[in-house]
Structure formats: structure tokens, C-alpha cells
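Deviations from the work plan: none for this task. Representative record:
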Amino acid sequence: MSEEEILRVEDLSVRFPGENGPVQAVRGVSWGLREGEVLGIVGESGSGKSTGALATIGLLPPGAEVSGSVRFRGRELTGLPERELSRVRGASVAIVFQDPLSSLNPVYSVGYQVAEAVRAHDPEISKADAFARAVELLDLVGIPDAAARAGDYPHEFSGGMRQRVVIAITMANNPDVIIADEPTTALDVTIQAQVLAALRTAREKTGAAAVLITHDLGVVAGQADRVMVMYAGKVVELGTVEDVFYRPSMPYTVGLLGSLPRLDADAGARLTPIAGTPPALDRPPAGCAFAARCPLARDVCREREPELAQVGEEGHVAACHFSAEVRERSAEEVFVPVSSVRLAGHEAQDVPPGTPLVTAEGLVKDYPVRGGGLLRGPVAVRHAVAEVSLELAAGRTLGLVGESGSGKSTIGKLLMALEEPTAGTVLLGGAPAVTGGRRGRRGRARELQMVFQDPMGSLNPRMNALDLIAEPLRVNGVGRRERRERSLELLASVGLGGYAGRYPHEFSGGQRQRIGIARSLALRPRALILDEPVSSLDVSVQADVINLLRDLQDALGLSYLFIAHDLSVVRHISDRVAVMYLGRIVETGERDDVFDRPAHPYTRALISAVPVPDPRAERAREHTVLRGEIPGASGPTTGCRFRGRCPVFLDRLGEAERAVCRERVPALTERGQGHPVACHHPS
Amino acid sequence: MDILAPVPTGAPGEVKQEAPGAPYRLMVRRFLRHRLATVSLVVFTCLVLLAFVGGSLWHYSYDVFTPDNSVPPSLEHPFGTDATGYDLFAQVLRGTQRSIEIALLVAGVSGAFGSVWGAVAGLYGGRIDTVMMRIVDLVLIFPAIAVAAVLAGNVAHGEQSWALVGLVLAALTWPYVARLVRGLVLSLREREYVAAARSFGASIPHIIFRHILPNAMGTIIVTVTVNVAVAILAETALSFIGFGVQPPDTSLGLLVSQNQTAITTRPWLFYFPGLFIVLIALSVNFIGDGLRDALDTTQSGRRA
């Protein structure tokens, strides 16, 4: 990496017209990108991280006003006519967006599109040679069987594969700068690892510098050389990854790092959420934008905006009046973690912790796969859930993890009787639950409730907070007076007392999820099913909701089924963990047993793919990049369902041992203390 | 249980700088921001007042001859008169009244019937859905104007002919509403808040009246508004070809038709009714646009 700057941004501002006057999405940021380096840009949603980066190369929606200066290799880009700009972009800058479909043309095969990029860069090359080069590039980014698949069209690829096709096109363009805007956000960790590996290959082959925009601090820790933290349209801290992660000097950075549950850390520690929400950018505050949420804020912070100033090491700058003070404190000392639960008039469970409350035995859920044809008869069966047994105990949390498509959400629906199981039984407090239709759901509603993933989607936008929380009571025939009292009490207990008349759109994401949680508690259930309850929230808010859930559990003795794809969160909150793959539980056990001594190859791969927000640890870890993706209905129907992706099966087993995997479905068998694994060759 | 220490969960005032209160206030503000829609609402209200109240105040009636034949617009006859001596201003007011009545009848009947049809099909799904939607397809493939002409031309006579024209047009336009509402219900019933309600054990009527309808209402209102404009044009077309409103009653389409031969010699006879048709259709369309923007809950309004 040289010190030469390829891209220099000075005092860049972006304004959009908004409902209440102009929104200042980016407010005077300055930064540079050096030759060959990776600059990570992190921040919560709405911090201006994408807008700021895309503005440098003139990629903004119409209506945006840009001011300031952007120099690319010394050439001023702002003010250039669109035609000139697009020439610069075409020749030197490649962009990888979050949604790869937006950058691929659906009517051409992927091979053709990569070849086009090759030919655009090198007009001399023949069509056949360009296509051969395209296949080579597709192979480089890890498209299996690239020669055969080059003729396929974008819709025939999965999200992760499409993203890799985009990266192949990026390589063909041989850019000087790659801008990756949340390239792995909607992807599973295993697929994220594949895409990040492809991106790394692309950078190494082209020698390009890269801007990596993400909200995932773990990804930044593993991939970036320097990191820039943005808040409310400003750069608040910028430095090498090690400086920023180990010596954060701005309270917001400290808070972001402290609010993150970690896969490799002591799970008992309490997270430190950052209270409040970012300021609205149509009227930015006069002083430091973070002052309203900062526990260290003093008068000067509210009056005068801090400038970026060097703190400690060369090149490490932070915008805080008290950065010296911040450097000496840990996250717990800055953001003193406090409980947010106020429970008056709630009573704890009448059963001792550990008592089984909900038991599922041999749950099976098959979906028919329908054919085309006139009659659309079932042509096959997809096993969404196969022989799953689990137990939810009072005061305990069972974490259920797996990639999307593993069937974990279906289990939640089966337990809630939102779906009918094909086979198997659910026991509530030892007695079989009524199955079937609305009666079944009513019976369960008082024992078992659900908190949904998307707090906006699960709250009816036409109802206010009070009516939302009262709805389960109303449905179950509770009188008006009692309904009102109980809902107000619940609202207060999740820290939202006084906002009963507000509608969902007037709350922030975290507050909405608090309403969802309060609603789920209305019928005083013994157990909650939490289906990805924090995955749509920003990290600082996520920590707040996790803390709330823990407090509620401690106070009420609730049992949780915590369904999530984020292993760090699951490790933080669970007592026991179950890992699912294609409808089956492949490993289960006490949390630390599973995370520290994973026995199933899938669990091991999953854990190794999770990026840790600690640069040294992350770079030292051994990563198993799992091949392929979770197969759909076309997956293997006999034997072990994981074998097509299993590193052990593919790389280490002899023919005789493989035959066992092909023929026999591995059963969950006990290995040691309460840690059963479904694998013929566990480690 | 002890009361644990409170935590600041963020000043909710910061969450959103929109006016606090029910979502409808936000909608009113959004509608008023759509300038064309606001102007159109004023124009349309004036037209309605003029047509329904102005007609009886004006000193000529639409069906009484005046002593003046074929005079151009003047103070006495603001829109002039035709060859037989009818005062065109009185006739245009009457025509506007009829056209608006027909349009509202069409929009109301087709909106209500189509919504119920679509909602039932969407919610029940399966075979009921298939049969109901095939019926919709069947009605949709009728060539609307031809069918309306035959039906209205054969049955519509006398005083109430306008109502029959309206009902025939409604019978031909409800499938558009039904299709739209069905699609909407199909997506609404998959929402997580419906799943949440089901998980509390909510009944189907509860889900329809508390969740589906309140959230579908916006789109239904917009569609019905747009249908008003469509119906006005359809009525005009029918009357123009002689199968709509029958004389001595009159409508805007009929006026244009009766006076089409005068376009070179007495152009006012043609242009004034035409102007009113354009005004009504445009203003209703813009009101529809404004409503669409105002009711679109997908716009958070904060992110540009």
C-alpha cells in the first residue's frame, strides 16, 4: 500500500429535498483513498455512508445537490458533465451494490455480460477469447462449474452467486477503485464469506483500492485497512482499523463497539446500547450531532460542533471535544448499562426455572411442490422440517440457528399453530396441545406468544400503541377497562409509558420492537418465540432490545425460543443452542459446548464464517469457506443432507466412509454431556 | 417486584418531526402539498356547487326556449344559445349535473360491489377464488361501449334513463375494482400483523375489519376516484353516439353530439360543453393523483 492518494474528497456535502425542507444527508466530509488500500465506512442506517461514497462518483438520485470537491488522480470530478463522469466511472471505478439484480441485465446470459465487460476494456479481443476469459473470471470468483453455467441467465443464480458474477464483471473492468455498498448485507454468513473471498480475489488481481460500506463491524475488522465512522452525515472518527477498534476516541465509536454481542467473548457481559436515535437531518443540531445520546455530553458539546482532530497516532482523527477522556474509558464506563424494564404488578412464573413448559416431539412439516400444468398437482414433497424435537424450559433460552431455508422459522410457526404439522405433537406443560385451526391457536395463545422479525410489518400501521398492545386481550374477550389498564401497564414496563396514542410510524425501530414485545406479553404467556427479533435493527438499538429481553426473562421467568441467523447474538442470549440444516437439527447442546467444541462440520463452518469485530483476532482466525448453498427441493433425499457441502465428506473421507453418508440419515446421537450430534463422522 | 431503574429510550420527539397524531393528518398534509390536486379539489367543488345549486338559481331553465336563437355569448346568455333558442349555460349546468350524478353512481356501485367481490375472492382463495375471478375475466372481455350501447339503448327511456346508464356502466367497470382489491387482499393477508393477530386466536371477521379493510381503504378510495373520471368519459361517449341520456334531459356528451355540426358556424355551442368535460375529467384525475400520494404508506417522507 502506498501513501499516494487516488481519490481525495474535500468538504463534500449532499442535500436532498425533504418533506420538512432540505435533508442534509452528508455534511462536509473530507477523506482520501490511498492506492491499493481498503477503506471501510461504517455507521447506522441514515448516517450518510452510502450517499457520501456514491456522491463522489456522481451516482445520486435526481434532486440531490452536491457541493465540495472530489479529485480522482488529481482531476476534479465535481461539476463535470454526466458524459465525462460516466467515462471516468467506466474506465476506473467499479461498483458492487447490495442488490446484484440491479446491476445485471436479465435478458443476457452471465457469461455474455462478463465477456461484454472484457471486450469493453479490450476492443481488440475476439468474441471467443472474451468468452473464454469470462469463464476464467467466473471460475476465479468461485462459480462452481463456470464453463457450464456461463450460459445461464441471472435469474437462474442465487443472490450470493449473482453477487459473485457482479464481482467477476468488476474484475473484467480492471478498475482502479472498487466501491462495494453493503455487498453482503442480505446474505447468510456462509455466503457472505464466499462473497468476501471473491471480493478479495478481485482486489488482488486488479490491484484496485476499495471502499467497503457496511454496518457490520466484523466485516470491517477482517477486510479493511482503515475505517471511517460516520454519524448524522459527518465523519466522526477515521484511522487504521487497529487504532479505531482498540483505541476508539469518540463516544459513538465506543458505543458501537460496546453494543455488539461477540462470538468470541464472555456471553454474560451486558451489552451497552446507545440510547436514543440519530437526529433528523432536515434540522441538524447546532453542536455535536451525537450530544443528545452521549452520556459524556456537556454544555460545550451542545453549543459548538467539534472538528476532526488528531488523537494519538498519526492519521487517527476523531471529532469529539473530550476524545482524550474517551480513550481512557471502556464502553461500560461511558455507557453505563442500566436495566430498562420497569415491572410493577407483574408476577413471575409459578414454576421453578428449568421446568419444561413447551415440548415438541418429532415435528414434521412437508410442503407439496406443485407442478406447472393445468391441474397443478403435487409433483414432489419438500421437507421443511423433519423429525425435530425440542424443549423450552422456564427461565431458559433455546437458540435456534441456521441459514435461511433451514426451516427454523417454520418451527416457530408450527409451535404457534400458525401452520399444521404433517406429523408430531406439541405438549404444553406436559399435556398435548389442541391442534387445528383457530381453537388450537386460542388454546396456545395464553401459554405461548410470538415476537416477529419486522417490527414495522408486524404492527398494523392504522392502530395506535395502546390498541396494538390491547389487541390480544380484545381477541380473547378481556373487557374494555381491564384491557386499557393492562396495556398501559405493559407500555410503561417496556419504557414507553406516555406514548399510548402514537402510531407505529412515529416510533423508531427499537421502540416498535418494544411494542411488539409488550404485545406478546399481554396474555401473560409462559414462553415466547422470538423470530429474528433484532435482525432488522441497527446494532446500537439491537443491544437495547437484547437487554430488554434478558431483563424480562429474569423478572418473569419466561422461556424463550430465540430464532436467529446471527450466531453472535445467539451466543450472547442463549442457554442452549440447536443448529438446523435443511429441516433437521444437526447439533444441540449447552451454549458453550456447541460454540467452543462444535462437533458437526456444519456448525464448525458456520461459526468460522462469522466475522469477529476484533481486527487481530479476526485476521488470525481460521475460516472454512463452505462451498455451495443450501439446496432447495432438489437437495439429496437420502442419507446425510449436508454431504454436498460438507468439507469432511468432500475432502477427508474415503469411499467406504462416504457410502455411509450417502445411504444412512445420521441420527442425533449423544456425545458426552447433553450434546447430541447428527453426523456419521463428527470431530 | 422491585422497580428497576429507568433508562432513556430516546426522546420520542426526535423520532419523527411529523405532526403527532393519527396518520390521517399526515395524509391531509401530503394531499395539500400536491398543488394540482388541491386546485383540482377547489375546481371540482365549484363545479358541483354550480351544477347542483346554480341550475335552479339561473333565470333560464335547460328545457325552456328563450326568444333568442343562435346568439353568441353575451351577458344575457354567457354561453350563448342554440338554433332552437335553448340557453346553453342552463343546459351545460344541467348536463354537468347529470354527468356527475352518473359518474358518482358508477363509482359508488362498482366500487362497493367490486371491493366485496375482490375481498371475498382474495381471502378465501382456492376454488372460490378461481371461479370468481373467471367471472371477472368474462365481464372484462366484453367490448364495454358496444354492450353498454345495446343495453342502455334498449332499456333506457324517460326520466330515469340516466340511472340506467349509470348502472350499466357500473356493471361493466366493477371487475377492474375487484381485480385490484383481490390483489391487495392477497398481499395484505400475508402481512406479519395478520399473522400476529392469528397467533392471538383472532377470528376471520376480526382480521377483515381490524386489519385488512383499514389498510385497503386508501387504495380503494383512489381507484374509485379514478373510476369517476372514467365513468364521466364513458357516459359522454355513450351519449355522444346516442345511447346515453335521452332528450329532453341532457348531458355534456349529448350537448357535444347535438352541436357537433355547429362547430364552424357557432363554435361556442361545441366548446363550452367540451370545456366542462375536460375540467371535470382533469380535476377528478388530479384529485386521484393527490390521494394516491397522500395515502401511500410506503413513503416514509423522511428519506429523500
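The domain at 5-230 of chain A is CATH 3.40.50.300 (Rossmann fold).
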